Known about the structure:
The complex is a heterodimer. By secondary structure, chain A is an alpha/beta fold. Chain A contains 18 helices and 14 strands. The longest helix of chain A is centred in the middle third of the chain and has 19 residues, at 230-248. By secondary structure, chain B is of the alpha/beta class. Chain B has two domains: 7-132, D-Maltodextrin-Binding Protein, domain 2, CATH 3.40.190; 134-193, Arc Repressor Mutant, subunit A (Orthogonal Bundle). Chain B has helices at 14-26, 41-48, 62-66, 88-97, 109-157, 161-174, 179-193; strands at 7-10, 32-35, 52-56, 81-82, 99-103. Chain B has a five-stranded mixed beta sheet. In chain B, helix 1 (14-26) links the parallel strand 1 (7-10) and strand 2 (32-35). The mean pLDDT of chain B is 85. The A-B interface holds A 39-43, 46-47, 50-52, 71-74, 138-140, 164, 166-172, 175-176, 179, 181, 321 and B 38-40, 42, 57-67, 69-70, 73-74, 79, 81-82, 85, 88, 91-92, 95-96, 100.
Amino acid sequence: MKTVKVGFIPLIDAAIPIAAVECGFAEREGIQIELVRETSWANIRDKLIHDLFDASHMLAPLAVTTSLGLGNAKVPLAVPFGLNANGNCITLSARLYRAMEEVLGHPPLDARQSAQALKRVIDKRKASGEPPITFGVVFPFSVHAIIVRHWLRLGGIDPHNDVQFLVVPPPFMVANLSEGVIEGCCVGEPWNSRAVESGVGSIVVFGAEISRCAPDKVLALRDEMAAKEPEAVHRLLRAYRAAARWCQNQENHANLAHMLAQPQYINVAPKTVLNALSGMLAVNRTEGRSMPDFLRFEGDEINRPDPRKARWLYAEIANGLRQNLNTSQAEAAACVFRPDLFDTATGNNALPESQDPIGLKFGPAFDSNNLQGYIDALRG
Amino acid sequence: MTDQASILIIDENHVRAAIIQEGLREAGHVHVRWLNETANLLKHIVDIDPDIIVIDLESPNRDVLEQMFQVSRLVRRPIAMFVDQSDSASIRDAMLAGVSAYVVDGLKKERVKHILDMCVQRFQVFSRLEEELHEAKTALADRKVIERAKGILMTAKSLSEQDAYAMMRKAAMDQKRRLAEIARAIVMAEGMLK
């Protein structure tokens, strides 16, 4: 049986590769997965491109930037499977949240109101010469940074000039919030809940409030591996597909929570994992919130890698880097997402759904045929 | 020969950092600094303004350095490269040893390679030391549990020390398991039967 070495970061959205191993889906497809836990996305990328991993759990934008050479390496990658949609939150420091409550006279009720309240706090701080607010994100190229920018725009805040972004690894997020190095962050679970439990922060926005189906983590391979070992890739994809269905099924959530919570995987309390799976989180010390779509693992619009999503990621990355749109790079980005591999492996014949592949709930509508128009609208 | 390039080592492991610093100084690098403070890392790096950054791979902080590839308000002098991407073999060696290096300004490739090679070597020395320590600890723990199990067998079955040992030895050989594993099973069983 062929063995593939698969890297992962201890996060809840590594559920599919972990379940593929633990529930025997991989074995059933005739492939053996050796999971290797990693500590940073940079390690993941470098071990994948230098052949120490065959495949990996990866931030969707990182697969695109690595293929295009926009980060510090340029190696063509292939994304044949999406691992999840959403699951991240925006959490603010207790002090910043209180300042927002003060300007509103009550706690913010939704994403728009919280962004508008933040705008007023930022304006006040600017007027009194205070330093700008810094947001912690998990990587320069991450859907986390994109989500924060969309939310800021919702309140009329300029993401490039009114705030700063700082990369903070998730395990250090709460400490940085507590020490005031950052005053807000966008990160997956369990880190938001940790901030709430310790009284350091309040969750103000669930990622699912910003978009329906923005790609978060994906399965990434070297392009070369996809070409040379199609059989192994197909087996892997079928195992992932079965695992995705199993992970999405609510009846399995208690089992999945225990599985992921184990020391060799995420190493947290099963209850914490279960909260994220069920989308029921304490957002501050007194309130809880529930959103059934908080984190999704399964469905064609999540698992089947739609090249339009890669184009969206490219547009957002170019916007984040304040670069002009480059048509050949946009095309190269689209080629990173490989629905052909997914379709061949799973026997899927369905054409991509015609609806908007990202489902942004605010701001400019995304049209994959008019990236320039989209970027212009973002820069408004 | 002294080298004026300033090198920053980011490693939370004190012993390993000391081993690397020593190696670099011996090789003539006089400007070597060590940072074990990981809070506000980017600000510390910008303040220290090194030419080369050496970081261990166990720390999630490697992702913080990724931000330094672009100039921003927070980063004045960007990282020019993460070692030499075309030299896959040496990157793999470094990764396997658990270290990586970044070049902040246009230093010559050969000088960087020399520094990285030195760090890789020192990381390997450290891993070997750690392994040896681990082995020594395991051996000690094994000896202790084997002694205990032997005592249990001697009492329970009125055996001589030699016969008790021979019995465990035979069980280990029959079951193709380590002697210490058999001993642990005996100790555990005794605890449960008490």
